[in-house]
Every structure is written in structure tokens, then in C-alpha cells.
Amino acid sequence: MGRMPPTPSAPTGGSLRRGARIIATGFRRQPRWLAIAVIGSALYGVMTVYTARVIGHLTATVVTPAVNARRVTDDQLWTIAWELSIVVALNVIGVILRRVAAGLAFFNLNATYRREVTRQYLRLPLAWHHRHPSGQLLSNANADVEAAWNIFQPLPMALGVLVMLVVGLWEMFTTDLWLALVGVLVFPLLFAVNLVFQSRMAPRATRAQELRAVVSEVAHESIEAGMLVKAMGREERETERFAARTNELRAAAIEVGRVRGTFDPIVEAIPTIGTLAVLAVGTAQVAAGRITAAQVVQIAYLFSVLAFPVRSFGWVLGQLPQSLVGFDRLQRVLTARGEFGYGNRSLPTAGPAHAVAERVTFSYALTGQDSLGYAEAETPSEHFLAVDDVSLDLTPGSTTALVGPTGAGKSTLTDLMVRLVDPDAGEVSIDGTALPQVRRGGIPQSVALVPQQTFLFDDTVEGNVTLGEPHGAEQVRDALAVAQATGFVDALPEGAQTRVGERGASLSGGQRQRIALARAVIRRPRLLVLDDATSAIDPAVETAILTGLRERSAGTTVLVVAYRMSTIALADSVIFLDRGRIADRGTHAELMQRCEGYRTLVTAYAREAAEREAIAADEEPGDQGAVGDSLAGEEEPAR
Ligand SMILES: Nc1ncnc2c1ncn2[C@@H]1O[C@H](COP(=O)(O)OP(=O)(O)OP(=O)(O)O)[C@@H](O)[C@H]1O
Questions:
Q1: 407 C-alpha to ligand 1 centroid (Å)
Q2: Based on CB atoms within 10 Å of each CB, which residue in 100, 123, 322, 638 is the most buried?
Q3: Strand order of the sheet with strand 433-434?
Q4: CA of 413 to the centre of ligand 1 (A)
Q5: What does the pLDDT look like over 165-187, one tens digit per residue?
Q6: What is the mean pLDDT of the segment spanning 38-55?
């Protein structure tokens, strides 16, 4: 769902200071292109004023004599043509330099920060990711980067205009004091009106921009949930939800148009009134013989061309609030602490792993949102204790089943065992090496986790199994065979070379899980952790997989989060986890005998499964149905 961060407000003293910091950062990161852009813009500014001077000069030396003589010579026409061509050409060169260099600086800054932000995502631990929804991460890497640096689109022009104003006012003062006074009145007025315009415009434009993002998010969500929406008959509700956001966007866009509609004529009118004032004052001065008509033409021209560029100050100020918000959000990611430390030790490369957890504890940070609508990432005040003082000793080559009610902390414990997160207290080690001492990339070489939720890339079956590592077709086939996937993969149009679609859309939940299993198996892990990784697979197939794993992988220690009696039966020992603590451990038979919570849970699963089977058998008498001692339904969607 779209979250609406508070709308940034108009610039204040503090925000101007912070804006200056963004500008300084941009100049530090892209000094060459921004310097060229500013030089180009200054050239444009000087040449615009110079154009006025040339026009004044031509009026005095060519136009006035021609009018007086009532004829114009070729020479006079050529003088006009070439003098004007030179100033216009220089003006155009200035514009090209500014646009190209400012564009390059802007896109370079975007690319640099996108890279930095995504690199930081990969560096930050899973605990940080737990606190930051993926929509927020996408927005950091896209919209926030652009918003932060957008200020560099109008900035070089505004700096050039500054040069233009100084030179222009100088021209006016050196021409005639009275005309200069008109300038001194008109330019600050224009500037002030622009400020008011932008302060009204900025929050409205930002809101419209955010609503555009929200509308596309809602559309994206509705499309993603298309099947659910249809199945649950929620089409109207979804249409209403979308219409509500679209109406908000329409209202916001109308607001923007209204403010623009009010201010545009005023902003346009001020320089025109200035030009009229120049003509009025100028005519009086000419009549008094203080200045010439050419000088009046020069200043009047200056007024008529200055109105548009002066607006670029307004654009800079208008962009400032969004840049501040974008930049702050980027800084939060880039300065986030909690980077995973790595040691320099390597784990053994052969033989089953000896994995030990010693009194590990882990809490999730429960975070609110800060004033920017962001998770209060660095200083969470509340915690939820998910794993509480748990010790495990997985002997090499053993298979251990982790059983517990929903929310007991099973997934969290598996995350700890493969170092997706570090414990708050206690230690996890493999073969005597504490996991934080293992070098970067060392753990995935020894350990594989097949998580609860399967993710497949929009790639071929083979690509999803190898993940781009150099495994031969034989190895892929072998891994698919262990995962009991050969049958359905061979039946695909191009076998293992068939593309599976976005997130494996063309496959069933159970098929996706089998490919994810093959992905782990092909790596020949020394510790294999299966977090409910076979929930959508037919129990008979699951048993075949786990038996195959045991037979083939004398070199693997297995930790499996299990629901089904058939899975549990294959384990050497069982750990019963309840509310984050180990309630009991032993063999299945021992726990059935002495642990009431375990017995209740396991028999409840078994009863539910048996009931489902009975219903299925009643409804479909022709179906083969029987699934033995399953604790969960067959080919149900992946959890
Ligand atoms: N990212 C998170 N932020 C806050 N709390 C979380 C987070 N992930 C899990 N929890 C909480 O931690 C507890 C343990 O969750 P965990 O996923 O480890 O349980 P589980 O035993 O695997 O459950 P299930 O069998 O339903 O998958 C749950 O109460 C859950 O609400």
C-alpha cells in the first residue's frame, strides 16, 4: 500500500543551509561537468546582456542613420547581420555547454548514488532489511536519488542568471540612473513574486508527484493480486480503491494548475510593466536630451529578455524541499550502521559440518515511523524476543527436525544458523569457528538454506539451479533428480532450458520448491537447512527427496523445519521449539511419550491431514488420493 510521507514545505533558513550542503556535495562529486555548466551559463548570461548592448549600438550606428537618410545600404545590413550572428552564436554555445554539462553531471550523480545505495543494501544485515519494506528500498534507489539531485537541473542556469543580473544592472547604472532605478525596483519584485509562487507551488507539486507514485503502486498491487481479487470477488472494491487515489491525484494536479494559473500572468506581466516603465522614463530622458533613443532600446530589450531566466531562481527554490527530503532519505541508508563484520577464517571444505548454537537469543526490533515516514531504523525502542536462550548441537551427518507451533521462532533460528542474522547474545559456530570469524562468502560455500518462500528468477530451470555458477548439465540433472524434479522438468517444452517466467509463474508451488531444493543440493552443502521447504510437495515425493538426501549426502548435516510425521520420522532427533525456547528434545517416540505440547501439536497436524484426505477421497472417489501419514495437504500453495 502506498505510504504518504509528509509533504515537504517551502524553504526556510535551515533548509537553505542544508540545501547549500547538497549543492556543495554535488559540486564535490561532479566538479568538472558542473564547472563547465556554470561557465556555459555565465557565457549565456553575459552574451544576453551583450546582445542588448549590440542592439543599442546598432540602433545608434545603423538604424537611426538609416531612418534619417530614409535608405539602408548593403553594408549596414551586413553589419547588423554579422554583429548579431556573433553574439547569438556565443549565446547558443553557452546554452549548449550548460545543458549538456548539467545533464551529464545530473545523470552521473544519479548513477553514482544508485550504485552506492544498492551496494549499501547488500552490505547491511538482514536485521536492517527486516525494518525496511522493499517498497521503501526501491524508492530510495529511484525516486529519492532523482529528487535529491534534481536541483542540479535548474541550478547552473540560476547561477548564470546571477551573472546576467549583475552585468545587466551594471549596464543600466552606467547608462542612466533613472532607468537603473526601474531595474532596481522590478528585479527584486520579480524575485519576490517568484519566491511566493514557489513556496505555494512546492508542497502542491510534491504532493502531486507522490500521489502519482501512490497511484502506480495501487495499480501495481491490484495487478499483482489479480488472481486474489477475482477469486474473492473484490473487483469493485479494488476499482474504488484505485478511483479514490486517482481522484486525489486529480485534485492535487488541479491545485498545481490553479496556483500556476494565478501566478503565471503576474510573473509574465512584471517585466512587461518594467519595459513600459523604461519606455516612459526613457522617453522623458531622451526628450530632456540626457540619453539617446538607442540607449532606451537597449535597456527595454534587456527587460524583455530577463523575465524568463529570472524564473530559474524560482525553480531552484521550488526543487529545494524535494531535494532535501530525497537527500535525507539517501543519507539514512548510506550512514546506516549495523554492517556485518567478517573475519578471515575459512571453513573446512569436505565432510559434514558440526554446527553448534550456544545460548543464542534474538529479538526483532519493532519500529515506528519517523517524521519522514521512515522506519525509525537506528533507535528502535521496542523488541520482540523471537529466540530465547537456545542451544543446539547438530552432530556431523545427522538429520535434526525442528518442530513447533506457528510463530515459535523456527525460521528465526534457521536464519541464525546460516548467519542471515547475528544473535543478540550467544554464538553460532561451525566446526569450532564462530560464524562472524568466517571470511566474507565463506559461509555460503559450506551452508545452504532453502527458505520457506521460494524465489525463482525469470530464467531457465538450469539458470535457477546453478545461479550462474559453472555447474555442468550432468550436475544439474543429478541435483534435479535428488529433488525429484526430473519428471516434470523433462516434460517442460525445452526441458531444463525452459524459462520459468517471473518468480517461476509457469510452475506449481511444489515444482518451484523442488527447483529451489535442487539449487541447494547442487552446491553439495556441508550443512543443509530446510525451512519448511517441502510444504507444497506431495508427502510421498517429500519422503523420496529426504531419503535420497540422506543416502547421497553422507557428507551433509541436515536441519529441517518439519510439520509432517513422515519428515519427522526420517530425523535422528527432534527439537521442539515453543515461544522461542526449546521445550524438549529427543527422538520422535520419546517426545510423543513425555512432551504433551509436542504430542498435541503433532497429533493435531496428523488429524487435520487425515480429515483432509477423507474429504478429498469422498469428493473424488476416482482419485488416488492416499498420502499415507502426511501432516499437511498435498500440493498446497507454497507458504
Ligand atoms: N521481521 C520481523 N519483525 C518483527 N517480528 C518478527 C519478524 N519476523 C518474525 N517475527 C516474529 O518473530 C516470531 C518468530 O517468527 P518465526 O518466523 O521465526 O516463526 P516460525 O516458527 O518460523 O513461524 P511459522 O511456522 O509460522 O513460519 C513471530 O512471533 C513473528 O511474529
A1: 5
A2: 322
A3: 382-394, 355-366, 425-430, 433-434
A4: 10
A5: 888 888 888 878 888 888 778 87
A6: 88
Given a contact cutoff of 8 angstroms between Cβ atoms, the answer to whether 447 and 430 are in contact is yes
- Would you call 626 exposed, middle or buried from its count of C-beta atoms within 10 A (0-12, 13-18, 19+)? exposed
What percent of the chain has pLDDT above 90?
18
Q: Are 13-334 and 355-368+380-452+525-619 the same fold in CATH?
A: no
Q: Is residue 158 classed exposed, middle or buried when 0-12, 13-18 and 19+ CB atoms within 10 A define those classes?
A: buried
Determine the Cα–Cα distance for residues 561 and 589; give it in Å rounded to an integer.
18
CATH number belonging to the domain at 13-334, selected among 1.10.760.10, 1.20.1560.10, 1.10.10.10, 2.102.10.10: 1.20.1560.10
What residue segments make up the domains of the chain, in order of their start? 13-334, 355-368+380-452+525-619
Q: Separation of 385 CA from ligand 1 center, angstroms?
A: 10
Q: What is the pLDDT of residue 491?
A: 85
pLDDT tens-digit readout, 482-527: 888 888 888 888 887 888 777 767 777 788 888 998 898 888 889 9
Domain 355-368+380-452+525-619 classified CATH 3.10.450.50? no
Dist CA 292 CA 298 (whole Å): 10
**624 strand-pairing partners:** none
User: Is residue 458 a contact partner of residue 512, using CB atoms and an 8 Å limit?
Assistant: no
Whether ipTM > 0.90 holds is yes
The closest alpha carbon to 370, from 6, 2, 19, 1, belongs to 6
Asked whether the beta carbons of 4 and 210 are under 8 A apart, the reply is yes
The candidate with the shortest Cα–Cα distance to 398, out of 175, 570, 611, 280, is: 570
**pLDDT, tens digit (0-9, with 9 covering 90-100), for 332-351:** 888 877 667 788 898 888 88
Our answer on whether the CB atom of 53 is closer than 6 Å to any ligand 1 atom is no
- Sole residue written with cell 532596481: 184
* Count of Cβ atoms closer than 10 Å to residue 618 Cβ: 9
- What is the atom index within ligand 1 of the atom nearest the CA of 412? 18
**pLDDT of 362 strictly over 80:** yes
